[in-house]
Amino acid sequence: VTSNGSAGGGEAAAAAETQRQQPAPNAWQVIKGILFRIFIIWAISSWFRRGPAPQEQSSTGGTPRAPSRNLFPKDTLMDLYVYISEHEHFTDFNVSSALFWQKRDLVYGDWTSGENADGCYQHSGEVDISQSVQQNGSIYIHVYFTKSGFHPDPRQKNLYRRLATVHTSRSEAQGSWGRNPEMIKRAEDYGPVEVISHWHPNLTINMVDDHTPWVKGSVPPPLDQYVKFDAVSGDYYPILYFNDYWNLQRDYFPINESLRRLPFRLSFCPLSLWRWQLYAAQSTKSPWNFLGEDLYEQSDEEQDSVKVALLETNPYLLALTIIVSIVHSIFEFLAFKNDIQFWNSRQSLEGLSVRSVFFGVFQSLVVLLYILDNETNFVVQVSVFIGLLIDLWKITKVMDVRLDHEQKVAGVFPRLSFKDKSTYIESSTKVYDDMAFQYLSWILFPLLGCYAVYSLLYLEHKGWYSWVLSMLYGFLLTFGFITMTPQLFINYKLKSVAHLPWRMLTYKALNTFIDDLFAFVIKMPMMYRIGCLRDDVVFFIYLYQRWIYRVDPTRVNEFGVSGEAPGSTQSSTSHPALPTGVPPTP
């Protein structure tokens, strides 16, 4: 059962715990949510701009239906009545304690009145609640607009007019996911479920300033859910909309026996048709659900991140961030493309850390298992899975992989055989690679042990399997940058960086700088911000090595090739030689 005084907000405690276990959304996920919502809004707006098609609709007699009109013409004087009750069907008009707010002589379509000259009015107060509400009972808000001089009570025959009264109420099924059977079923996977009523102290009532000649049966979805036609006259009532879009999940608080009154601030504002379409699109389920239940659905935490970004970020900076996010995706694709091209065309492993490739497979596997265990968005799961496949493919480029039919697993399946490539063994790279990971293990294993103890003592987990995954994932997220240092060590020992995929590294570095922008524009965990800074530091070390280990164009390598132009008299002996096996690059 859910209390819905300000759009409800009831939630399952176990489900909330599940949300706390989800990894914090990164910047691109937040911006992706904004962009996808813009697309949905554009699609709905395009559908709406087609306009009504009266010639296609007909009444019972076969004649075309005529366009209807708004029962409240422009500049109509109105009175507002707001009642709060524990009953879904309200009849206690004579009970003075049920009337929360009464506002007379409002003007329909007025955008200049009010305290801030924006047509908005506010009323604050406290709502007394009974023991039933304290124990997860229901509470409703009933809103009535009448033309000036009329009353919403149908029993007052002289003051009530059906066509002069528009009514809406917030029921327990609206705006709450605590009664959602699917959400409760998910929560039960993590333990016993206790449904707790929650309350948000803010709610806005919007009356849409719209006089479109709608035709019954031709209103495009999702707008048709809100346009209500009178059965007799055929005209439509003004559109009332409970707007709780800007209510953040973090501002809800539970209702229990310690509360006697609930704070409540109610606002009334006019709303343009275009903005109403935006909000209607937000409350509509994604049309892409046929691709998967959670394909484009966002968690409450992700939605709050989008709202906070829209509320607290300068509009110009927000627009710049969206543009840069598109550039981010382009760089991400280019880094992906150049990474594959580099390893596909690589003939020599001189100067490259093979162990880092295997460690990358381990990292990708841990991340994939972790997001599967936490039911992350399907798009993210596919992305990580593709990344894992690419890391596995890299193994075939850094080692000779073959099927050994002589030694079989369980006497049936051929055994996979791995052998280092000759270009890796014959050079000094393997020695430096082993040395780097030996030094690295002295740091990583103690840190892993300490983090495992910390995770076990201070963090909550669903079970031992989830503890192992979350511990490894958290450790890689915190200390994963250390695994980038073996390549720096090899570069230092070889005094060369000519073997590195610089295009791919450049694109990834640009994406890291973009992540820095997101991390400080959008609310992100401090560890995420520190992680971006650490990646920047590592890349600048790469740049420093590129500067000090410059390529000598005059050196003649073992292939007899030199970057010096023919006929040059400059001697190459005055320049330090690069390691053998590394062809010079201009």
Major sheet: arrangement of strands: 3-2-5-6
How is the biggest beta sheet arranged? 4 strands, antiparallel
Backbone structural class: alpha+beta
Relative strand content: 15-25%
Low-confidence stretches: 1-25, 48-59, 172-178, 286-296, 556-560, 567-586
Helix content range:
40-55%
User: What is the helix/strand order?
Assistant: EHHEEEHEEHEEEEEEHHHHHEEHHHHHH
**Gyration radius over CA:** 32 Å
Cα separation of the termini: 72 Å
Tell me how many strands there are.
14
Mass-distribution shape: elongated
Whole-number total of structural domains? 2
Mean residue pLDDT:
75
Oligomer: single chain
Total number of helices: 15
Pfam family, one: CLPTM1
Keywords: Membrane, Transmembrane, Transmembrane helix
Main location: membrane
Family: Belongs to the CLPTM1 family.
Task: Please give a structural write-up.
This protein has 586 residues and is of the alpha+beta class. It has two domains: 67-287, no CATH class; 318-548, no CATH class. 41% of the residues lie in helices and 16% in strands. The chain contains 15 helices and 14 strands. The chain has helices spanning 13-21, 27-48, 131-134, 181-188, 273-282, 300-312, 315-345, 354-373, 378-398, 422-425, 429-458, 464-479, 485-494, 502-521, 526-548; strands at 11-12, 77-85, 99-107, 121-128, 140-147, 165-170, 195-196, 198-199, 202-209, 240-243, 253-254, 261-272, 399-409, 413-420. It has a four-stranded antiparallel β-sheet, with no helix packed on it. A four-stranded mixed β-sheet has the order 4-12-9-10. A hairpin with a 3-residue loop joins strand 13 (399-409) and strand 14 (413-420). Helix 1 (13-21) packs across helix 4 (181-188) and helix 8 packs antiparallel against helix 9 (378-398). The longest helix is centred in the middle third of the chain and has 31 residues, at 315-345. The protein starts with 10 loop residues before the first strand and ends in a 38-residue tail after the last helix.
